[in-house]
Amino acid sequence: MTVIRVSQDEQTTKNQYSVVIEKLRALVAKHFEVDIRRVTDDAHFSRDFGADWLDRLELIILVEEIAGLEIPDHEADLIEVVGDLVRYIDQKRSVMRPAGARDRWYKIGQPDGRLTVCRTPGARL
Question: Which of 44, 52, 107, 120 could share a disulfide with 4, CB 3.0–4.6 Å?
Fold first, then answer.
């Protein structure tokens, strides 16, 4: 595995946000076994993906593990569409980050030749 630090030019807030959103959309698509094009901000977990409460709980637990945060049950119940989840994670990431701090992004070369971008080496989101 090769780790390459991304240059300052590539560390714009917009790019960081886009990477997180795309990784989250891919995670949702994989979890619910749907085409990633169906994973829009307005996509409802139950109505559009046929998710029951257990499917949603599994997704929340997966997101908690990958993003390194805890989503209390009363807040998880309010996450009904993909956009809710994206906004929740973005809000929590900005609260957890010290004022003025910038994420460091890394490109990770996988053994199969794929390139993954993440916040810290070894992270999955």
Answer: 107
Strands (E), 22-72: none
* Active-site annotation holder among 52, 55, 73, 90: 52
Contact 46/52 with Cβ under 8 angstroms? Answer: yes
Give 3-48 pLDDT, tens digit per residue. Answer: 444 445 444 555 666 777 888 899 999 999 999 999 999 999 999 9
Per the annotation, the verdict on 77 as an active-site residue is: no
Query: Is 73 contained in some domain?
Result: yes
Whether the CB-CB separation of 39 and 28 falls below 8 Å is answered with: yes
Number of structural domains found in the chain: 1
123: in domain: no
Residue 85 lies in a domain: yes
